[in-house]
Structures are given as C-alpha cells and as structure tokens.
Design goal:
The strands form two sheets. The protein has a five-stranded parallel sheet. The chain has two domains: 2-68, 2-Layer Sandwich (Translation Initiation Factor IF3); 89-196, Hypothetical Protein Ychn, Chain: A. By secondary structure, it is α/β, with parallel strands linked by helices. It is 33% helix and 21% strand. It is elongated and about 55 Å long. Strand 6 (126-129), helix 4 (144-152) and strand 7 (156-160) form a beta-alpha-beta unit. The protein starts with a strand and ends with a strand.
Length: 197
C-alpha cells in the first residue's frame, strides 16, 4: 500500500500511516511518500514504537519511507508524536498558540497538536481552555473539527466563562461547555497527569 503524504503538515503523515497499518494484510508493507526530514524521522519513530522495520529511499524531491514487519528497534526508548497519552490525562490550554516566538507558527503548532490528540488511541480525559486558549473553542477556530471529534470520543472540553466574557466570545462558544475557575482548579489539582500549554 502506498500513501502520498507530500505537502501534509505534522502529524498528518504519521496519522495516515497509523491508519494504513491497521488495513495491511499479513506480510504486506506500507510505503509513505513525504517531502521533509521531520516527517521521515517521525515515521521512523512511529515504526519503532510499533515494532516494525523502516527503511528510507531518497528521490530527487521527496523520500519514500517503507514500513514493514519485523523490527529495527535499537533498544533505545523512542518518543514522538504518536505516544499514547492515556485516559486520565488533563490538558490545560492557556493560549491559542503553542510555544514562544512566532505567533503564526505557534497557531500552526497548536492546530497540529489538537489534531494529534484527536488521533490518539486513548484521548485525554479533559481539555481545559482559559485565557487566550478560550479563542480555540469558539466559532471560526480552525480546530473545531478536531475538538468535536475529541468530544465525540469522550473527552470533556471546558472553557473558562470569565475568559470568554473578557474576549467578548461567550455567545460564540462552539464546542464543549463553559466552566468556572473553581472547577478548573479542582480538575488541575486532581489530575493524574497534567499537560500545560
């Protein structure tokens, strides 16, 4: 099976490959075409995490990543964008950007992160949105489809009402429900695992 993932932003090539792996017949290999080094490395990590062999062939303007049976895992623990987060995880989102530096890049990274969360085998238990993060759950957000998918799969999505009021967005909430700071404090202090963004 071949997937053309050229031009697709992280984590889409990995997610497409993960879905395709579930459809392979025994002994069949997967070939993924990508056009950047980061996608090649992400696919290698994903293959290692799944106990599969991966090899790469560079063409003139793209790479062909072959993922087959067997293992080329070196014994080193691998980390990457495919790690299962777990059902007891709370993700606290305080900004509509991820990281510091370019706001445009930060918005792209946040969109990619929320997309990746929606693709995890076990999504987080709760997503909390407050301060600038409240802008992600309202009409016009590029992440609404992914947030609705998370909600459909059982993730509780809560947005701070004070924050929505501050930004004049309370009437535009498009996914999840409104909460208060007491409930946010309660969820944060009782979380088994907490991811702060």
């Amino acid at each position: 099976m071949t997937i053309d993932a050229r031009g697709k932003a992280c984590p889409q090539p990995v997610v497409l490959a993960l879905h395709a792996l579930t459809e392979l017949e025994e002994g069949e290999a997967l070939e993924v075409w990508v056009d950047n080094d980061a996608a090649v490395e992400n696919l290698r990590r994903m293959a290692a995490q799944k106990g599969r062999a991966a090899s790469v062939k560079q063409e003139s303007d793209f790479w062909r990543v072959f993922i087959g049976e067997g293992s080329e895992v070196s014994g080193q623990p691998e980390t990457g964008c495919c790690t299962v987060m777990g059902g007891d995880t709370v993700v606290a989102v305080s900004s509509d950007t991820m990281g510091r530096g370019s706001e445009e890049l930060g918005r792209t990274l946040m969109k990619g992160f929320l997309y990746a969360l929606a693709q995890l085998e076990t999504p987080p238990r709760t997503l909390l949105f407050f301060n600038g993060g409240a802008k992600i759950t309202v009409e016009g957000s590029q992440s609404l489809e992914d947030l609705r998918e998370l909600e459909r799969r059982g993730t509780e999505i809560l947005t701070c009402g004070t924050c929505l009021d501050y930004y004049g967005l309370k009437e535009k909430l498009a996914v999840g429900s409104i909460t208060n700071m007491y409930r946010i404090a309660e969820i944060l202090t009782q979380a088994d695992r907490l991811v702060n963004l």
